[in-house]
Each structure stands twice: as C-alpha cells, then as structure tokens.
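Subject: sequence -> structure tokens, single chain

Hey, anyone have a minute? Need the predicted structure for the following. Not urgent.
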Amino acid sequence: MADEKRAFNRIGILFHPKLPASLPLGEEIAAFLRERGLEPWLCSAWDEDEVKGRVCDLDLLITLGGDGTVLRAARMATRAGVPILAMKVGRLGFLSEFEPSVWRERLPAILEGHFWIEERMMLHAEVLRGENRLNAYEALNEVVVSRGALARIVRLATYIDGGYMTTYAADGIIVATPTGSTAYALAVGGPILPPELKNILVIPIAPHLSLDRAIVLSQGASVRIEVSTDHRAMLTVDGQFEVAVMDGDNVRVTASPNVARFIRTRERTYFYRSLMKRLTINHTEEAEG
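Reply:
Had a minute. Here:
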C-alpha cells in the first residue's frame, strides 16, 4: 500500500450526541492527539453551524458514530476538501474504516502517512419553482422525491439531459450515488455499484403501472423531476432532513463538483468483502431481534 505523505496538524473530532460511548471516546482521542503536539477540536456532529465555520481550518475530520454521522460530516466537509476518518460507534458502518477498539494501533499509523484516499462522488440537488431556485443541497447517498404523509402516489415526470424519459406513478423516486446504492436504493431492489464509479442511479419506489426498473446514468447526466400532486410531496436528502415540494415544482439533480474524501488503510479491494460482512451481520441481528 502506497503511503500518503500528508501533515495532519488541526484535527476535528465529531461525536454523536445521542450515543453514550461517543463523547468519552472523542475526549480520549483528543487527549492522545494533544500528547503528540497536535491541535484537536471536539464538537457534536449535530452542531452544523459550528462545524461549517471551523471545517475550512482543519486537515482531518474524525467521525465517531454510524453512517448517519458520516453523511453529516461529508456534506459539511466536502467543499473544504477535508478527508474523513470514520470510526464505527453506531449500528450501521458501511462507510466506517474501523471499530473504536483498534484506534490506538490504527491512528498512529495514519498520522505517520500510512493510508490512501478514497474519493466518492456526491450529488447536487436544486428545488426550482418556476424560474426561481428555492434551495440547493449536497448528498452523499441519495436524493428522494416522494409522497408526503398521505398514502397516495405522486406523478413524477422525469427528464434525462433535458429529454423526457417517463412519468412515474409511484411513492417516489430515488436518485442515488454508487455510495447510496447500498442504502435506500438497495432496500427497494436496486443494483449494488462499487464506490469508485461515477454513475447516477434512478430507481422508483413502489411504482404503479409504470417503469419499475432501475436506470444507471453516466456521471455527467442531469436528472430533472417535475412533481404533479394534489397534496404536498417531499424532498429528502440523505434521509436526514426533508423539504416540502409543491405541485409543479422541479427537482434537478446532477453530480456535484465536490467529492467526499475518506481515509482508508485497508486494501483497495475491500468493498465487497466489507459489504457482505455488513449484510450478514444485519441479517443475523434481525433474526435474533
């Protein structure tokens, strides 16, 4: 494995405020870093205003939580190009590099430059009402346009690169990255894409008498979804926050110019073995639960 020669002097540590083990672990890591003459900064992953204000001054961001914490960190760190080292403290850890039990042996090697950088594409989504852009968002996993609280389908006219493709009558549409192919998209029967790809995945949720297959697009593709509904629909970003969209609104999704950068110490072929391990663990937990 080739070493990455990079100096990490200013290191941010994001803990999950709802996981009891996360903050004490963060404090322990911060003390370790101070002993090495480094400048750690400890903050809740949920305090997005503070993180966004400080992330540009950091060389490395360590996350202590599950995949949700990593998703938050990616959206906040991507524009600054700050790499993320994810430690699995939460239940799900598809994006994590290692468990907290081994951090004392793994972290010193990383600080000495023994790692490689994995880049993963992100999505850029915009909500348009007429000629006005209401909001813009970045996503590492997926952008979902779906029905709201009422159990009624929405009609979603979908355009690829400006050309009409089809109108889905469905509970919604998932527009996902390869990273997101192992998240919500996988749950509704979508394909698994390796993380190094730059494709965009479009897959309907519970389609009714309309196209029911996933479509894989190139990185440069543009997806526009026109919402037709007599009630409120929702835009969800990485499953972490939602925005109301109205009849006639458009959601435009493209590959983001930014990428999420992850610190990796495993071999570059780790993905499928890690995926099968996580899926096996989750099935076992469900059977025992």
